[in-house]
Amino acid sequence: MDFFITAIILGLCLSVMGLGIYMSMKIFNIPDITTDGSYTLGAVITSILLLNNVSFFFIIPIVFFVGAVAGSITAFIHTKFKIDALLAGILTMTALYSINLIILGRSNQPLINTKNIFSISIFENQIYNNLVLVLSVILILIILLTYLLKTDFGIAMRATGNNAKMVRAFGVDDDKMKIYGLAIANALTAFSGFLVAQYQAFADINMGIGIVITGLGSVLIADALQKLLQLNSIVWQIILVVVSSILFQLVLAFTLSIGVNPNLLKLITASFVLLIVGITRFRKIA
Question: What distance in Å separates the CA atoms of residue 56 and residue 72, rounded to the nearest whole number?
Answer without folding.
Answer: 24
